[in-house]
Structure formats: C-alpha cells, structure tokens
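Justification of computing resources. Each target in the renewal requires a structure prediction run like the one illustrated here; the chain below, 163 residues long, is used simply to show the kind of job we budget for.
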Amino acid sequence: MRYIENLLKTKLDNARRITVLGVGSPLRSDDGAGMLVIQKLEESLPSCPDLLLCGGETAPENFTGKIKSFQPDLLIVVDACDVGLAPGSVVEIPPEKVGGPTFCSHMLPVKVMINYLIHETGTDVILLGLQYKSLLFDGPVSQEMTQAVDHLCGMLQKLFLEK
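Resulting structure tokens:
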C-alpha cells in the first residue's frame, strides 16, 4: 500500500482538478468496491470545487460528459479486479495494460472510456484495482474488501485534505 500512497501523493501534487470515478455493481458483493469508495468520500470530505466524485456503477461511460466538462488534471478510477492477489489487495493497473471486454462487467470496456477521456481532456489517469474475493449476486461485501476500501479512503482523505 505504500507504493499506492506514494503514487497518489505524487500525482495529486501535480494536479489542480481531480475526479474520482467509482466503478462496479453494488449488487455483486465485492464488485461494488468502487461505489463504496465514492460513498465514503462523499460522506467524509468537505465540498470542494476542484474535486469531482462520480459513482459510475456498471455504466461509468455515462459520466464522460460530466468529466470532460470538469477538465480534470487527474482521473482516479477505482474498480474491483482480478489480478490473482490476495483479496483486498490494491494495485495500480496501467491504463495501457487494461484488457478489452473480458476485463470488466461494465457496459463499455473501461479501457475505451479511459482512452476517450485522455484524448478529450489530456487528463492523467490512475486506475486502482481492488482484488475481489466474491462476486456473489446480492451477497455481502467481504471483510477483506471492506478493509481495503476503508484504508484507501483514509489515504485519499488525508491526501486531499493536505492538498
């Protein structure tokens, strides 16, 4: 997690306007991690004109117009993933390494959306993947994912407030 914190700090230091886009389905256990991050940040951070929080659920492309209008310097995308690590692990996934439609369960592949936003806004992008334990329909969020979300939100809150 130290690597993720250092990465975020470096990127945030160089960004004036920041968007956090949570992706995933709250109906599928740990897949809702991105939405949990947005919910927790909305509850804990004061309103700020230079921070845009978007709960994209399974159709994050619906927010491309809003993100494009906001013109962020940094876009942080948070999504559950399978990278073969222990549940609750948080990793950076370079946008160029994101696969096609098999990578996600969303309407439009995340890679297509990210490439579009980079092209349209020139934004820098960090894609944070949280390793899921379960994608059970209507199941609970695992303890590992809850801890990962809490830790990531605590880190983001601290970094945003220091900015």
